[in-house]
Amino acid sequence: MLGMGRLRAFLSHLLQPEGPKLSVPDPARAGNRPKSCPRLDLSGKVALVTGGSGVLGRVIARTLGTCGADVAVHYFSGRARAEEVRDDLLGLGVRACAVAADVASVDSVAAMREAIARELGPVDVLVTNAVEWNAKKTILDQSIEAFERSHRSCVLQNVIAAKAFVPSMIERHWGRIIGISSEVAMQALPATADYTSGKRGMSGVLRVLAREVGAHEITVNEVAPGWIITDQDREWANQRNPEYEERVPMKRRGFDQDVANAVAFLASDLAAFISGVYLPVCGGNVMPGI
Ligand SMILES: NC(=O)c1ccc[n+]([C@@H]2O[C@H](COP(=O)([O-])OP(=O)(O)OC[C@H]3O[C@@H](n4cnc5c(N)ncnc54)[C@H](OP(=O)(O)O)[C@@H]3O)[C@@H](O)[C@H]2O)c1
């Protein structure tokens, strides 16, 4: 039963001609305006981009640096390419270094962590982007070694990187982990089982990790690009693929910068309460079930 006072309040709430009053600041009154617009600001953070020597990794690294982060650009065999990205960043006034590692080796990743700590400090934002590619083959034709390569770079990379970098994030009660997946993980296309199962395995690791470390203000997410236009495509004048574009709701391929923007957003405080997400950047080509 409502008492008379509460009944009156309830009725007047219903009868307000302009609807119920919400307790949000009135933007028209300067005094109530938020002090600042939310900004995508990564200053004071150290980011590591694995595969920073690769075509997507270099754009992710440059973007995180442009947003204010200090950036470790990882490479495996592409030292010159990683150093070029590092030099670009240094030229922009960003603290940066190039670091080598085999992302599937515990010792090699531990050595990389120490090198980054010496140059820039402990890693706050970890982007697991490196991948070992195989030629596309059906399950019956694909070699076991190719499956192992894919699983090492997609699944084990994330386990090893978590063991290496998360303890320090826990100590500092802040962290961002962003795995680069693919729209292919959702598509189960023929001749992609090595890659699909690698990326699916990576989702398994990262989603469990999101639950295990969330209480420490560490978010764990995936960005899943579609078929992206990169510098390599620009070089090869290979930016169109009508058959693919026809299937994509936005009728085009995405850009490397689109992927990097999603990574920067998830790394920032704007995404402080987003975790466990698989974020497709593919013009609507895959829509994970809800
Ligand atoms: N490009 C696309 O359209 C697209 C679409 C969907 C998803 N993706 C995803 O985006 C990410 C980057 O792809 P990308 O197109 O930029 O490929 P990429 O240019 O071939 O780059 C791959 C990177 O992985 C590194 N790498 C390879 N083997 C390694 C190992 N054993 N240990 C450490 N690093 C190793 C390479 O290092 P070195 O070159 O220094 O040896 C390189 O930096 C991948 O996770 C991929 O699955 C890409």
Please give the structural blueprint:
Blueprint lengths: L3 H12 L30 E4 L5 H12 L3 E6 L3 H13 L4 E5 L5 H14 L5 E4 L15 H29 L2 E6 L12 H21 L4 E8 L2 E2 L1 H5 L6 H6 L6 E2 H12 L10 E4 L9
Parallel strand pairs: 1-2, 1-4, 2-3, 4-5, 5-6, 6-9, 7-8
Helix pairs in contact: 2-3, 2-9, 4-5, 5-6
Q: In which order are the strands of the major sheet placed?
A: 3-2-1-4-5-6-9
Q: Structurally, how many domains make up the residues?
A: 1
* Average pLDDT, all residues: 90
Shape summary: globular
Beta-strand residue fraction: 5-15%
What can be said about this structure in brief?
By secondary structure, this protein is an alpha/beta fold.
Description:
There is one protein chain. By secondary structure, this protein is α/β, with parallel strands linked by helices. It has a single domain (40-281), classed as NAD(P)-binding Rossmann-like Domain (Rossmann fold), CATH 3.40.50. It is built from nine helices and nine strands. It has helices spanning 4-15, 55-66, 79-91, 106-119, 144-172, 193-213, 231-235, 242-247, 256-267, and strands at 46-49, 70-75, 96-100, 125-128, 175-180, 218-225, 228-229, 254-255, 278-281. Strands 3-2-1-4-5-6-9 form a seven-stranded parallel beta sheet, sandwiched between helices. It has a two-stranded parallel sheet with strand order 7-8. Strand 1 (46-49), helix 2 (55-66) and strand 2 (70-75) form a beta-alpha-beta unit. Helix 4 packs parallel to helix 5 (144-172). It starts with a helix and ends in a 9-residue tail after the last strand.
